[in-house]
Amino acid sequence: MEATATAAVGVTPVALGLPVPPFTPHAISVSLPTWRDNVGYEAGDKRVLDAMVCGYPRFFIGLGIRKLAQLCVQKFGVHGESAMLFPTKKTADACRSFILSRSALEGTQASARLIQLLICPEDKANKAILVNSEDCDCNGSASLVDLHIVLFPSEAFSVAMQFWTHSGAGISSRLAEQCLSLLPEGLPSSLSFPTPSRGVSFKSSHKHYGVKEARRVSPPIIAEDLNADHSIYLEERYGRNLPITAASAAKRALRLRIAGVQLRDAPKTDSTGDQSSLFGPSTRGVNDVSENDVYLYPGGMNAIWNAHQLILAVQPVGKSVCFGFPYADTLKVLQKWGPGCHFLGHGLDSDIDQLEAILEEETKLDPSKPPIIALFTEFPSNPLLRSANLSRLRALADKHDFLIVIDETIGNFTNVEVLPFADMVVSSLTKVFSGSSNVMGGSLVLNPQGRHYSNLKSYMNSNHEDTYFDQDAIFMERNSRDLQRRVRVIDHSTEAICDFLYSRSQIAGVPGAVIKDVAYPKYTTPEHYEARRIKSNAQTGVQQGGYGGLFSVTFTSPSASHAFFDALPCYKGPSLGTNFTLACPFTILAHFNELDWAAQYGVEADLIRISVGLEDTNELLAGFRLALKAAEAAVGQNDLI
User: Could you tell me which residues belong to the region Disordered (predicted)?
Assistant: First the structure.
């Protein structure tokens, strides 16, 4: 039934464990097409894990990365060691430090060591060798690839995986692909990546947000269907990207676009993204923000991790605040680095009342320093789509001298204007900014009008390093050229779908409805969202912002929720902001072994999160009507039993 329904609205069904969309090189989502599949994934079901050939890159170490890591272990490791790879010594050293400190906290002190790894051309045929940097004599070859390897006991893999997952600092799949392409033929092709047994679990310093991380161990390597040449052909032929030599220009184009100073996208014939006639004052609500205030990262979580590291470096020692129920790893970053944080998980005005009490109490304890060092919040939040009262939070930050970091991923700067209320704005470019689900990226923007700007900027000038792989930047630049057009289409369809579902819900007063509620900025804390929603301006040509492409639905019974999900004719898997509609049982994937705790904050176990794509609005509505009928039928059948 599911395959038939899916095909009816033009979506080709994708088998469990394969990339979505199909045949996508470097895909960042994976097909988990039924509710049972998602539960099986979290529970460590062999049927599901054995089918997985890809996954979200922070949770699933890609096949190419694992193969390269195993080669490094064979070259430099000793028996019983595993490896993780990073683009710079600084990030590798941060991983080593985390392994040492975190393993000690968990009662199993582990060692870790670093090696700088150079993949160096050996001859004119461009074959290569792996060498320690001390043994290299490549004389600045343009083909030289510099990696940094962390070697550690295999039994400490679960701790190392925490760093990989929370920080998002590991190398990208494209970098691994480039490294492997430089190596000589004849290397072992059936390498396995040492991992702990699936029974090993993490011990968190906070009993909550304890996603069942043991099952995030990657399955055995399975041969990929596409060879490297075919993969590159697909990306270059259908991606129509800039040549690799244009990486610097691509990164500048990205920074200009994110800073809001690029008034319109460069013509498609332009190969540099660098035409001064297209520039003007920033549209981000802060006129003097420039490309130099924008920093690029390998992913959104890496931008958040770096924002937190920056704050720890420039602020006095103190806790942060996590305001609202965030994406899980944001809270983990605040808990596991530094002295911890206060968690105000509802993100409502009542939580601001509680925040005021915390600030007053901490000030009494030590008036010589800020009561907290920073507040992190999403606008709106994922998955509850709640928007915080930014004006009130900003007033408290100014009064008590702490920083505000806003994650604008869900709202995005085409729809909402949040930079004036933040010291830093972070975003996952992986999501709607890219849309194509084939490249990771993140950004951090400093507010030049912020009280702490000079300290933040000075630190970044001295310490920031570019870890965003050139090829990833090139694909991201190409994907994001039509951002505004895509956002308008997605916003329009999402509002139509949400209006339909809301009209058939209990919250709208419909008797006997199987839908309990629809979480969407139009209905959820609307006064706070509307206050930051971009207003149309005829003079500048700015269009009114929409409500975004993400919403969540809750149901009156588990059977209704599961039936709706299984019947919904779209791709199913992790991630959001894709050009195609993508659904997942969010709480199952993010909070499988703490469902009761998550429910205390309104994140119900059977919540379905849906990211709307570029498909025809009427086609999408037809699919949601079909899924709703399945949910209603499931409830009716249960009533008869």
Answer: 265-285
